[in-house]
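hiii so my PI (J.) wants the whole complex modelled not just the main chain, which honestly fair. so below is everything: two entries, each one labled with what it is. i double checked the lines twice but i was tired so who knows lol
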Amino acid sequence: MDNQFNRRDFLKLAGLLPISLSTPRLSRLLDTPSWIQEKPKNVIVVVFDAFSAHNISLYGYGRMTTPNIERLSKRAIVYHNHFAGGNFTTPGTASLLTGVLPWTHRAFVPNSEVAEPFASRNIFGAFQNHYRIAYTHNGWAYTLLRQFHKEIDELIAREKLLVGSFDTAIQKLFKNDDDIASVSWARNMRVNEDGFAYSLFLSHLYEDLQEKKIENFKALFPRGLPTTGSDNGFLVEQAVDYIADRLTSISQPFVGYFHFLPPHYPYRTSQEFYNTFNGDSFKPVEKPIDIFARRVSKNLLKKRKEYDEFILYCDKEFGRLYSYLESSGLLENTWLVLTSDHGEMFERGISGHSTDALYQPVVRIPLVIFEPSREVGMDVHTVTSAVDVLPTLTHLTGERMPDWTEGIILPPFASTDQIPDRNVYLLRANNNDQYAPVTMASTMLIRENYKLHYYFGYPEVSADGLVRLFDIESDPEEMVDLSQSKTGVASELLNELKAKLTEVNKPYR
Amino acid sequence: MVNFITQRYSRQGLWSLFLICAFPLHFWTLILVFRDISWLTERTNAWDAIGVASYGMVFAFIESVVIFLVVALLGLLMPKQWEYDRRIAFLGLLILLTSLWGIISQLLFLWNVFLPAQAIEFLRNSSHPLRIIYAACLMVVTPTILLPAYSFIRSKKAVTFMKNIMERLSLLTMFYLFFDLLGLIIVIIRNIN
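here's the output for the full assembly
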């Protein structure tokens, strides 16, 4: 037998090489969902800050605040019972980005960073094969993005999309304490915000300088240019244009995280929506003043109206971003997620979200997932959490599911419809030491239709804490506290929550 | 230039002028800081609230220096024959009166004091509402500046009275400057990390 391996044999075998190389990949595709079998998809997460599901017409609010989102959602998956991880920027954003709850990532103190392991265990670290790009107007969210910078290919500088002001100089001067320096600068210099400022003389000169800078925008924003809370103005239009432009230029697949500040306070809508809801027939449900309304807010109806009008501005800009992505063809290959970091409330004597109370408006947020090529909308009423977004996105794009996440794959993408008896938690512990057991906090546990509030460590509540129980399905406005009438459910959920707290406190004792 | 300044101010006089410039600015900053502190603690935490207050004190010090320089320069325009004490007392009076009006204008917002409805209606119907507001302000503010100024020209008692007030307020301002120093230390600590 001639064992000689000649040139012809070699060429014959070489022809088989491509098949042999692709075989392992093909076999992997056999048990993978159909949407992954194509080229890797992009992911865009759009966050509007302090965007309460309670005030969104898509979720049944009495004012038409989101006509564009409603129209677009007819081809999307809409989650009706979605909850944030915290009730202000730092814990809410950190939970969304890391896929774990505040007591795990530990960023529950204002403007704090997550615990060291989560500097890489986050959405950017999970998408190693994607180009990762991020932007935010929000200083506290930017603190987190800066912490994740090693995992981000392009972190767009926050100042880049702000209308220039002296605040930027203050941030550069006090770069290790930029947030508090900016707040103090605003309290010193921004006399127009409240009609008073620490500075008696220079504030007026400064205001004149600022006025000159934004003169061209004045007609467009009758309540003033939207600001980041200090004196940094911005336009969502500018941010949307810039981001849309970048997304068509960068390499694919990509993961984009874009966190816009509106409708966060100050509620400064554009001329187009100014006074849209003046004199309308909408009347919110009247509710009693809450124990945590430490300084009872006045003009709640006026603030709510201005907030609702600011939502219209967000809605329009989201619609514009969507149209841009659609017309550029990006949407055909992109999972687009619309959500928020926390809500906002205008009831029970409380305005905004800087509150220890955990009522629905401040914790229930929107989640809408736009699936590439989906033509028919879907409504999901299962209770879901912000920590579910990261594992779901990795699953949808064929990335490795993070082993650290506390979330689950969202329906309808999960193989099982839902995990029975699943608990959804939220924590607010902004006055607790970051790396100490949680001893003063507001916590929430939702299981099916029951929502338990548990407040402890506050001077307003007894040593045993304060417990409230609501059936959020039959009583979505949380008017009837069931903690005394349904003691069995209340104690079962409370015991479970306490056991969870004991478990998460263990490493810090 | 140095000679020109020393002909008009003594070193002690300039120090007194600086203290009287710093007094209303620090006084107002502290009032608002105490007003804000619980609000800030609720939204952030105690350390950050102290941080905001510390920056506030440092900014107040810087503003005091700026206002002092402006006032000292304005003082050079005053009659040459005025003695040191009269010049400093007069400038001190002007800065206190101006600050008082500055504080009153902000207090109106803090106390939610607004014009009565009839006055607003009248302004709305007038063809030049802003001019009317400015004229009304001038009519109220001008006498409060002119009358004390006139009394300084006519009477020595007014100068002595003002000097006494300045001495007492200076002591309080020294205390405020101590807060500035504390504020500066806290700002440095916060920026070292």
